[in-house]
Amino acid sequence: MALRINELCINCDVCEPACPNQAISQGETIYVIEPARCTECVGHFDEPQCVVVCPVECIDKDPAHAETEQQLRAKLAMLQQLAP
Length: 84
Hints:
By secondary structure, the chain is an alpha+beta fold. The chain has one domain: Alpha-Beta Plaits. It contains 3 helices and 4 strands; from the N terminus they run βαββαβα. The strands form 2 sheets. The protein has a two-stranded antiparallel ribbon. The protein has a two-stranded antiparallel ribbon with strand order 2-3. The longest helix is centred in the C-terminal third of the chain and has 14 residues, at 69-82.
């Protein structure tokens, strides 16, 4: 399941560099997570790094993008194939 950043975001800038898949970017008002790039850090870390570094706990699972661990690993493999 991809993650999402909710309205509690204070734009502290710590989540974006923590993401190994470059899934986080500055949105119109708060940071946003691109579901197609978010693997919840599966294949990189034991827990999502954006959640670990977030000082206000504004990152939740996105129910609109439910995925199993196997699907997240497949997404990671696809992202790694696209990387230069």
